[in-house]
Amino acid sequence: MFTLIFVCLCLLCCNLHAETECIPKTSEFKMKGDYLLGGLFDIHHVKNINKLICSTFPVYSQNFTLSSYRRFQMMRFSVEEINNSTSLLPNVTLGYEIFDHCSDTKNFPGIFSLMSVDGSVQPWKESVNFSKVIAVVGTYTSTASLAVAPLFSFELVSFFVLQISYGASSSVFSRKQNFPSFLRTLHPNKDVIEIILRFLEKFKWTWVAFLYIDDDYGRDGLDLFGKKIKDTEICLAFSHGLEENTDYPKLIKQMEALRINVVIVFTTEWTAEKLIMSAIQQNVTNKVWIAVDAWSLHKDLPKKTGIRNIGTVLGFAEPKITIPGFSDFINSFKAQNQCENPQQDPLCNQMCNCSSLSAEDIITADPSFNFPVYSAVYAIAHALHAVLQCGAGSCNKSIKVYPHMVLEELRKSNFTLLNQTIHFDDNGDPKFGPYAIVFWNESGDADEIGSFMFHPEFNFDINEFKIHWHGDKKPESFCSKECPDGYMKKQEGVHKCCFSCTICPKETYLNTTDPYNCLKCKDKEWSAEGSTTCKPRQLEYVRFSDPTAIVIMIGTVILLAFIVAITVLFALNYNTPVVRSAGGPMCFLILGCLSLCSISVFFFFGEPSVAFCILRYFPFLLFYTVCVVCLFARSFQIICIFKISPKFPNISRIWTKCNLHWIFISAAFLFQAILLINRFSLDPPKQYKDKFYFDRIILGCELNKFLDNILISYSLISVLIFLSFCFSYAGKDLPKNYNEAKTITFCMFLLILIWVTFATFQTVVHGKNIDISNAVATLSSLYSLLLVYFLPRCYIILFKPEKNTEQYFQDLIQSYTRSYSQ
């Protein structure tokens, strides 16, 4: 309701003023034609809303915008060029009515003039007549467009006016439900923000300030920028809306305090002028200023004294497109027509005191947004060309042209203009026109150093070698220096760009997708400290090809060769006193069990399996028990003969007559066999993975629980070894040359030493060294028994045959008996 009242008041104002309105035909703001185009250009920029007469400001004042005046002339040139064309709209003449849109809120008389039908606007009333203007080119700013666009597409009137803007880039205009008759020929803010983001990512600037004009255009840019950097490494360290009364020295000090070296200036040219001039006055140095298309081609700022000291200015703008004929048009216009007309009523802003401007001033002015003006006029002309069904040399003027017909054809635009294909997307945004990347060089010019293509896809290309950085080095802009590889970030404060670095511990890694957390490696993987990936753990065990395994297996084969040789030697000398004193048939039992024990050594190598783990221990424990119990029986038998028999002859007789030594050996064997079979069948040793080494998995046999289960078996062997040692030690004073007891004593002592050493070593070694130490301990036990017990006897048989006689042994025994009796 408020909107309707406001519109009606404005209509009343316009109708009252229309009685005194007078626009000369020779005015550069107005030209008759078969079809009229409206134009809105901010030739003057007036902030004080009480000052409505725009033309009262001289051309060299702050309120006059030369670049906008150039755009204004570009529209006039475009219409004249189309009227002179024989292929586009033949026999049809375009006219225009242009207004100096010097204020965002005080230009409604001109707006209603464009909307009027027969001098008035009639809401709700259906009429066969409609606005004399088929389309409006303008306005320049988003705020101005937001003020007029709802009026041009007002649904309560019986018409609408098609509007094509050459400078309003706010994203709100892409909403067709709100602005159905609005199109534009420049890229929306979302595309501009995309270029800014590519700048920051290209040069790895993550700590930036965003200064924006505090209006619809600037606030929309800030909102889009904030959303765009949300999932990136870029942080918005500082943002501020620039107004007429902005305290620029304070603003610059705030940025300096935050150590910001990259400043995005998302504002209009007149606001940018104030900011840059203040930066020069405040002696700002070594910063990067990113200029948007609204001021990146500014003609005066790059030439200001001290501009080099503030740092490097990079920006983007339309490529410098030379529009043929424009310079001739301006030269011709300045020679034939002047703007002054004292009878011109200034209220509707169709007057310009521009006589002091030379043609050179206009031609060399900032060319920003000139091609969007040029393409907007041509897009309307092509749409009208289609509506009027123009053919070879003529158009059908009898066709009643309605605005919706022009709008429909305009949306389907697809024509080539200066090597660019002009067409629009569903939102009325352009699908044409690249941007040039520019650099303000030392001469005060904007050099093109790259380009940004929007269609058919984004393509950012820049030649860094053309950039001469202030201080000869590319500035850096960050809150915290990037962490080295393998270091995770720990955010400090509200900004994700401010962080400390912590190295990832071993067994973890840092994924590039999540720099804030060290991820744990999988079970079969490992990583060193400060890693960015995990590596597969190597499976490791003692292979048969391992040098240590080869040496131990060769030692085992040599052991078997010794056993065979000794067996043969003892067999050949079976009836000799040396063999009989060593135990006779018991020697062959010991030698056989030693050979069976040696089987266990081979299964300490190769990939561990349940079978391998069983065969590592079962043969050795079972048959080594027999060996030890034989030595125990033999040591007890020697004590019986030499120590017990003289005093207790019955005990010795019973031991010998009843063959108690064989019974004892068999009982020990059966008892150990039952224990081992029971334990190995119920809970056999299994393969396990030792992770003591973080970079590999050691395959072995699970011993801790298994050793608990066979503790009785080990205890049995230990008790037998201890008893053997005790009995043999008791015979230390036997005949000097009859050293069997001494041999057993030394053998048992050596076994005890080997297994104590092995048990100690087991607590300090890890991985496959455990298997190697097991194999060495097993083989050492076998060698100690074989060499210590059997080798001296082999020596006597082979090299001292005189001692291998019954007479020699009887003499020793009788000599000992006489001495023992005394």
Explain what the structure shows:
This is G-protein coupled receptors family 3 profile domain-containing protein. Residues 548-813 form the G-protein coupled receptors family 3 profile domain. The chain has four domains: 27-186 and 325-333 and 345-423, 3-Layer(aba) Sandwich (Rossmann fold); 189-317 and 434-466, Rossmann fold (3-Layer(aba) Sandwich); 487-536; 547-820, Rhopdopsin 7-helix transmembrane proteins (Up-down Bundle), CATH 1.20.1070. 44% of the residues lie in helices and 14% in strands. It is built from 24 helices and 25 strands. The strands form seven sheets. An eight-stranded mixed sheet has the order 8-7-9-10-11-14-15-16, with helices on one face. A hairpin with a 5-residue loop joins strand 15 (446-453) and strand 16 (459-462). Helix 11 (370-387) crosses helix 12 (403-411). The N and C termini lie far apart (143 Å). The model is unreliable at 1-26, 124-128 and 344-348 (pLDDT under 50).
